[in-house]
Amino acid sequence: MIKVLHIIDWLCLGGAARGMIATSKYSSRLGQFEHYLVSLKPPDWMALELAEQSGMKFINTLDQTEIFEAIKTVDIVQVHYWNNPKLFEFLRSPLPETRLLIWFHVAGEYPPQVITKELVDYADFAIPCNPYSYELPVFQSLPDAVRIEKIGMVYDAADFERVANIQPKPHQNFNVGYIGSVSFSKMHQDYVAMSAAVNLPDVRFVVCGGGVEDYLKQQAEKINASEKFDFRGFVEDIASVIETLDIYGYPLCEDTYAAAELNLQEVMYAGIPPVVFPHGGIKRLVINNYTGLVVKSQLEYTQAIEYLYHHPEERIRLGQNAKEYAKQLFGAENAAKQLNPIYEKLMQLPKRKRQWGIPMGSSLLDQPLSLLDVLELPGKFVGAQTFIKALGHTAEPFLVSLTAENIDLILAAEEQIAASSMLLGLGEGSICQYRDHYINDGYLRLWLALVLRHQQRIPQAIFEFQNAINLGCNHWRVFWYLAESAEQLNDIVLAEKAVTRVLQFVPDFIKAQQLYERLQPLLEGDISHLGLKDINLLLFLDWTQEEQLYSQLSAIIKTLVNHPDKRQIKLLIDHQGIGDEDADLMLSSMMMNLLIEDELDVEEGPDVSLLGQLTQPQWSNLLSIVQGRICLDLENSATIEAVHADQIPQFPLEELLDWRSLKLENGGWELWKLREKNYIVFPDWKQPEETLYLELAHLFQTLATLPNQNEITLYLNSQNISDEDANVILSSIVMNLFMETELDVTVGLEILLTGQLTHLQSQALGSRLTARIILLHEDQNAIANFNGEKIPVYDLEKNRI
After folding, report:
1. Beta pairing, strands 669-673 & 659-663
2. Backbone angles phi, psi at 93, to 5 degrees
3. Tens digit of pLDDT for each residue in 101-144?
4. Going edge to edge, which strands form the sheet with 569-574?
């Protein structure tokens, strides 16, 4: 009995793990083999259950010493490789004597998922998992005798028992399936656009898999194509999906690390014809116009799907060919028939000790030196060095960034790093993943910051630049990157501090001098010291009215403490005309009394502070940011007028609880009147006056007589009418109702006009609405512009949604 120990980074339900489990099952069925398993990370319980059901014996440990002991007890160690810090670190550790087989589950061409010469040299036997990878120079440049002796190609293997009994089921739509990782490190970034461009009456794109599906939904919504997509998230029972598919649309990005793609094998085995791009291992999995269609552009992808819709006979032909092809070449049973002889061949070798970077039969003196070998780099940057080694020949810009002294070369290299692909920057085996593993490595922090900044994720980039500096990556250029990023974010103080450090090192750096000059007038209006929050409200107390100060402030604080959005609120109290120390003493005393006597808990908000003495530029900046001011009977009207605070929105104290925070898609915040139930209607303001009056009067009367009317806000969309005209109509209806029925609909019910909304405002308000009340006469254009079709409908007569 030959014992094989499989080592995988993470036992999950991904393709590499499924391939391992399936081939192990058939390997044991076909020969005298026992398969053991170690996961370097805690396993997914569903995957563990699947592995044990297939006959694998799980060794439950994360301890390296115990893993090494397990290695000593088996005949062969089989590492399932894709680049990630945990697995790469394990391979470079001092392994016990063993026979080592590495099965590569990546295409292996593009960083970070590259198959390096060092990996191939390290193994006793190396297996690329598809023909495309087998043809890479890392394998084909080997001497013929070496390649024949230690390289084999075995397809990553799907367990066809999972889809063996699929029978097509009748369905309404023309379904185009996608099963797998929903992320742009694998999926084509224009998946939604190219799919939505398919001009078919009943096409539906069924997307199964976790990742950025919410973002894809948003993309579909923006181009009004949501009805074409069915996002289902992770689906384990893929047979139930495949049996309703007409074709399989699997467009991946150009630098994909996709290799033998089990999902593609499974749908082909089920007789579903695929449409794919010739990227990664896929270019050798599908034969164009025989087992599927291979396209080279987004337009061709769209046309291919339309062609197969209009030519069902071609779907049948390609599907039948795909099924026969998959039976002959793919599947775990076929893979096991190839793996078992490889295991037997390895048994003819002795167990060996190995050293990273030195091929079997060679010595250290025979190996060429690299920069990392001759330079003495600080140990704190070991993560960056490991990442570079994992990238092999594709690591040049990172090596220059870490080791070069010429600033022009460094800046050019780091510009290249900033433009890294989604996979290299944030995907599997990426800068981000290595940063997470080597959390205190300053260079990994720097490289991630460059990528984030290039993607306009400026706050996250600033966080990483600051950490890079604190962790010893503190060359002046890092301060320069930080200064530029801070200016982009309008963090003027941080930008000034960073650029000042730059000029200390390189005083003649013209760009830094120019940035410093740009910042000076902005610093005069800087208000970062105020610590603003999402919702910022001004309060202009009349400090001369000492007797009323306490009662006024007490009422305001009590109201804000009970506000649903109190954690987001900052109350800024002006104290012009009174000294800072006196104002601070009075405010502290009042707050202390409120906390003790009224037992108020302000720990969760609001945040209350004094404004201090502001310059006119600071006032102008502040007034452009705040949501408004709380108006009182007694307030400092002179200051309000002097700083022009009379021009910002006013919020009466008694209405403050009805004003709720709304976040816009651009990151801004606004206050809107919202209650427990918030409805909207879209009147057709152009209909005859009598019809409009009767329709809205009936609506108001019905809502005003509901038992929960005090909890209701009703918005009337007034996008296509002036505020003045709409208010005249609204006032007339309310007055007539009162005269005819003595019903004042404004007592409990809140009736408001939306006014002229921007797209961002419509989006934000729409997300907080309870329902849309349908009128007999409606403004269809206003509904479409507001995306009102997506708001739940409220049945006015039955009082239910």
Report:
1. antiparallel
2. -80, 165
3. 999 999 999 999 999 999 999 999 999 999 999 999 999 999 99
4. 607-610, 569-574, 535-540, 628-631, 650-652
